[in-house]
Design a protein that fits this description.
The protein has helices spanning 3-6, 17-34, 40-48, 50-60, 64-68, 75-85, 93-104, 107-123, 126-134, 142-156, 167-189, 194-197, 203-223, 230-247, 258-270, 277-296, 303-322, 324-329, 337-359, 361-382. The protein is an all-alpha fold. The chain has one domain. Helix 13 packs antiparallel against helix 14 (230-247). The longest helix has 23 residues, at 167-189.
Length: 399
């Protein structure tokens, strides 16, 4: 049976579905079929009500593996925990910590590209963004949303963070439940046309999130002069493969390496109906309301001068990261800033190499963790933010 004949009819609003199959074969078939697939285990926990959700949260406060066999653990919570805590045959845990060390040495660059490249690449698809819009959190409070992502990443990307009893593992499973809460909210409080859109937060868009934090951000960092070794890159992709396992991505769509990430990105672009006005509003709010003020604060001088300059540079960087076609669709202003960013790459590379030679990798790593955690605390204080993830906000979806 061919990949084409095995695929159910895809959502009607997705373009280029035939090309997705022709270009990517079985992966393309899994992508299109996955538009009808969510996360049955997490969805079942949320549908069962607060007792099951609270049972998962209690287990995450201890060692989730020890909770799986307890007689008092509700059955749906037990099934979700058993799935998340299962050790894949391919997992090498020492690589997770090596990946964290490699990434944290570039916390400043990674933080920048996650906003100016990864999140904007995701915005280039209004179907993927629609569930978040329907929760009332799309385009609003970009600083708080970005800090929530930073809170999650800060625990995933640290030594022992993705151990089963580690803080990154716990927060990743909480994100999995947040996705399920959003699906239920969309089903109960909004109009959603499955035949046109697929299910809310389907498997393909969960897989694409891994590419946002993986290849999309790494490619953008390389354009800023960051040069990671091949073994460091492989470890980083291994980390995101494991995050995909914990967060509930189907193995057929969970990318294992750089080529897998690139294929997922291509499928996302091929089958995207493009951005809408909400997507463009999000890009503007994120860039001008959050990223530009943060970048401007690093440069001495009056905000009346530094903030427009920072905005100009960020839009130029986004054009470099996304390309002109996607940037035009997202209404990212064009101009000479993109040429400045491209021209700066060799100098940024030399500066980084000098930094590593002066500090050494061990000191650069330790400084990276300290700087990142200090910066995250500053951002939370500036935004009067007391919570970590949205499920800790009273009244928000997922609480």
């Amino acid at each position: 049976m061919s990949a084409r004949s095995a695929v159910p009819a895809p959502p009607t609003l997705l373009p280029n579905t035939d090309l997705a199959l022709e270009r990517h074969g079985e992966l393309g078939a899994a992508w299109l079929a996955g538009m009808w697939q969510a996360d049955p285990l997490a969805d079942a926990v949320v549908a069962a009500g607060g007792a099951e959700v609270k049972a998962v949260r209690r287990a995450l406060g201890d060692d989730p593996r020890s909770a799986v066999g307890r007689a008092d653990l509700p059955p749906r919570a037990a099934a979700l925990l058993a799935d998340a805590t299962a050790e894949p045959d391919w997992l090498e845990r020492d690589r997770l910590d090596r990946a964290a060390d490699a990434l944290v040495r570039y916390s400043a660059q990674w933080g920048l590209v996650l906003g100016a490249a990864s999140l904007l690449r995701g915005a280039d698809n209004w179907v993927a963004a629609r569930p978040l819009l329907l929760t009332g959190r799309y385009g609003h409070q970009p600083a708080v949303r970005s800090i929530e992502v930073g809170e999650w990443l800060s625990e995933v990307v640290r030594p022992g963070g993705m151990a089963v009893d580690g803080p990154g593992f716990a927060r990743t499973l909480r994100v999995r439940l947040i996705h399920a809460h959003v699906r239920r909210h969309v089903r109960e409080h909004a109009e959603w046309d499955d035949s046109a859109l697929g299910v809310p937060i389907p498997q393909p868009y969960m897989a694409f999130t891994l590419a946002e934090f993986g290849h999309i951000s790494l490619d953008a960092m390389a354009r800023l002069g960051v040069r990671l070794r091949d073994d460091e890159l492989a470890d980083i992709y291994h980390l995101w493969r494991y995050v995909g396992h914990v967060i509930g991505v189907d193995p057929a769509l969970n990318p294992a390496d750089e080529s897998g990430h690139v294929a997922i990105e291509d499928l996302y672009r091929l089958t995207s109906p493009g951005p809408d006005d909400y997507s463009r509003d999000f890009v503007r709010a994120l860039t001008e309301g959050y990223l530009a003020p943060q970048l401007a604060g690093l440069v001495p001088g009056p905000q009346a001068v530094t903030r427009p300059a920072a905005t100009w540079l960020l839009y130029g960087a986004s054009r470099v990261f996304l390309g002109d076609e996607a940037s035009d669709a997202l209404a990212i202003p064009d101009g000479p800033a993109k040429h400045v960013i491209r021209a700066a790459r060799p100098g940024l590379f030399l500066l980084d190499q000098a930094r590593l030679r002066i500090l050494g990798r061990e000191r650069a790593t330790a400084r990276g963790y300290a700087d990142r955690d200090r910066e995250l605390a500053r951002l939370k204080a500036e935004n009067a933010m007391q919570h970590d993830l949205v499920d800790a906000v009273h009244g928000a979806v997922g609480h």
